Amino acid sequence: PQSQKGMSKHLQLKICLDQIAKVSIINFVGDLVPQPLPE
Predict the structure, then answer these.
(1) What domain range is 37 assigned to?
(2) pTM for the whole thing?
(3) What are the tens digits of pLDDT across the range 10-35?
């Protein structure tokens, strides 16, 4: 149970970092190439 909990926490952290990375890349590219985003 202990290891499973740790794995879950690690997975959540990885997902969080992936989300932050995606947003950062999108913002970075958006700054380089201004373009209207579809709403």
Answers:
(1) 1-39
(2) 0.54
(3) 899 999 999 999 999 988 888 887 66
